[in-house]
Amino acid sequence: MSAESKSEMSAGNEPTRVFAIGSCRVHTPLKRALAAVPEMSYIGDPVFGFVHSAADIHQMLHVNDGIMRPPKELYSLLSIRNEKFQPDDESRKRRVIKHDVVVIEISSIRILKYGSCSLQINRLKEIVKERAGVRNEAVVTTSPRFAAVLALARSVSEGSDPVSVALRDFNDFEQSPDDFYDAARSILDRLPMPVLLVPHVNLTSTGNPIPQRQIIRDALERIAGESENIRFYDPTALVRDVGYGAAMADSAHYQEDFELAMGEQLAAEIRGLLNTQDMR
Fold first, then answer.
1. CA-CA distances (angstroms) from residue 229 to 96, 186, 216?
2. Does the CA dihedral 175-177-179-180 come out positive or negative?
3. Which residue ranges form the domains of the chain, and what is each CATH number?
4. pTM for this structure?
5. How large is the average pLDDT for residues 148-175?
6. Which residues, 6 or more positions from 26, have their beta carbon under 8 angstroms from its beta carbon?
7. pLDDT at residue 10 greater than cutoff 50
8. What is the largest CA-CA distance in the chain?
9. Residue pair 34/1 in contact by the 8 Å Cβ criterion
10. How many CA atoms lie within 13 A of 279 on its CB side?
């Protein structure tokens, strides 16, 4: 659907505003699929890029609400992609709750904490790779549990600039199932609108589940079962039905041809969520 068509529609019935929080696995499919859906409009955050953990999402909401004012020097580590962003901009306050539906994907229980800041893991990896040199790229991107990333982060953090200090002093840990549930639950407590919860695909190329992703799946399904305002959708079954190789470019990214199918499925889940609200 063209932008002009959606504009014409908005003159009458406003399309449902769908605000996405998460990784490329929700943003790109929704953006592609909802472009052809008259009754829905995809919206991403103009300041924050992709986020992965519950801590990342809390940080995003804190910044949107004006509760948190991170130093500009650390924007590159926090997935704040707009260097001109002003934390005191009153127009951003409570921005998220202005939308009709929020789709939230949480894909990691790993937390990288520096003071009050949650460092976005892919931004950290990119900075580490740049500082360490491309010769270390394979080590950085493939080592289990990011052990090599963490070691390299410490080794390339000489200096007193804010990014070097953060790379040297951040804490790395995984949330327990109870801690993750509490952190995810408290995100939902901040949002008054209907929410669609989406975990990471819990499947390897050999067909095995991933324990850390199972923790996320179990907690989000539990949270959705506790509220009529929340719906849960696990993309794992669709990936399994299509075939891992046809759906996944690698363990973290969808194949381009699969993105649209995933977006259409997410749109169907949003409709189901809204229909449930209408029947209440």
1. 16, 14, 19
2. positive
3. 3-110+175-278 (3.40.50.1110), 120-169 (no CATH)
4. 0.88
5. 86
6. 20, 103, 105, 198, 266
7. no
8. 59
9. no
10. 7
